[in-house]
């Protein structure tokens, strides 16, 4: 993200704090896909992820005046998204296992279709990512898919930078092992 865009995000937040609806629309247009993707990776449910977008931007509308600019606006948005997603997951944990969740449980037995998919690098990588612990998956998602720095990840997740580095190290090691086991010799970057 360029410094100009970051500055204009901050300007948008200041205008939103003054009740500027157009600034809210611009900020939403710029960041709603990122918020959705991050939320979806955490909750793994499209409807809940869609609901998260609304909740996150409603919070932005209400809390814009409290934004202090100590981090990038995108970092602030992802931190709000993470908090909302974890709250949604806690609520959902108490709900019964629904059909969608039951269908999402992987059948680990190899059949011809699974064997073909294993040869596809991106499918294998996706599978390997889902095998990581939620803590490791979250760090990998923020660093590699959202291009956040270790410092920004620490702020979003609310843990020390050294913990982020440790989790990233072990996540990459685990991914490399999983990819090798899936028949992909290329290591994780």
From TrEMBL:
NCBIfam families: PRK12515.1, sigma70-ECF. Gene3D superfamilies: 1.10.1740.10, Winged helix-like DNA-binding domain superfamily/Winged helix DNA-binding domain. Residues 27-93 form the RNA polymerase sigma-70 region domain. One of its GO terms (molecular function) is DNA binding. Transmembrane segments: none annotated. InterPro entries: RNA_pol_sigma-70-like (IPR039425), RNA_pol_sigma-70_dom (IPR014284), RNA_pol_sigma70_r2 (IPR007627), RNA_pol_sigma70_r4_t2 (IPR013249), RNA_pol_sigma_r2 (IPR013325), RNA_pol_sigma_r3/r4-like (IPR013324), WH-like_DNA-bd_sf (IPR036388). It comes from Tardiphaga robiniae. Belongs to the sigma-70 factor family. ECF subfamily. GO terms for biological process: DNA-templated transcription initiation. This is RNA polymerase subunit sigma. Keywords: Sigma factor, Transcription, Transcription regulation. Residues 123-175 form the RNA polymerase sigma factor 70 region 4 type domain.
